[in-house]
Specification:
Layout lengths: L1 E3 L2 H11 L3 E6 L5 H12 L3 E3 L17 H9 L5 E4 L3 H5 L8 E8 L8 H4 L5 H20 L7 H13 L1 H4 L2 E6 L2 H7 L5
Parallel strand pairs: 1-6, 2-4, 2-5, 3-4, 5-6
């Protein structure tokens, strides 16, 4: 596994190796779509996005992807391409697509710590992990909203996927991206 934190170093690696099908995986909000577009533009590769083939307004992700549509899109591409999305390895089990390179985006804070590590790389059994996360969420929710909140089915799916499949360990390349948490907390408030 190779680890990069520089986009230019990552681009050089990808140009040097001429991968046929590049997959980009990572947690929600890690920057998969953004990176896929940048790589696609730099290497002149089309990008398939799981999000664009998603049945909207559903509670879960992987079971609500239009796999036939994605498969048809992939068949119509004559040459290398990029496919990106959360829970990518689960989705690929339902598609006739075999990656030649898997990139995992690891979102880091400004101290170079993996932002979601406690959720995405836990040693706890999944049920215990989810219960622990819900307890933490509810401490904050009670303070802010005066009531408990359950984590969504979508978030549970991401946590289960990462802890079962370990895509960050399966990756050929890990791209460490520093996430601007201050900008996120200023813009991602409920109701904004």
């Amino acid at each position: 596994m190779k680890i990069y934190s520089s986009e230019s170093d990552l681009m050089s690696e990808l140009q040097k190796n001429n991968y046929k099908i590049i997959g980009i995986d990572g947690a929600d909000g890690a920057g998969k779509s953004f990176l896929a577009k940048k790589i696609g533009a730099a290497l002149n590769l089309p990008v398939l996005s799981l999000d664009r083939s998603l049945i909207k307004d559903q509670d879960t992700y992987v079971d609500n992807i239009k796999y036939h549509d994605l498969s048809e899109q992939a068949k119509n591409i004559n040459g290398p391409f990029i496919i990106e999305g959360v829970c990518l390895l689960y989705a690929l089990k339902k598609l006739p697509i075999k990656l030649s390179c898997l990139i995992y985006i690891k979102a880091l804070n400004d101290r170079n710590e993996w932002v979601d590590e406690d959720e995405l790389n836990s040693k706890l059994p999944i049920e215990e992990l989810i219960e622990s996360i819900e307890q933490r969420v509810n401490v904050v929710a009670k303070q802010i909203y005066g009531k408990e909140l359950n984590i969504t089915a979508f978030r549970k799916e991401i946590i289960q996927y990462h802890n079962r499949e370990k895509p960050f360990e399966m990756a050929d390349i890990v791209f460490e991206r520093v996430k601007n948490l201050r900008a996120i907390t200023q813009t991602d408030t409920p109701g904004s």
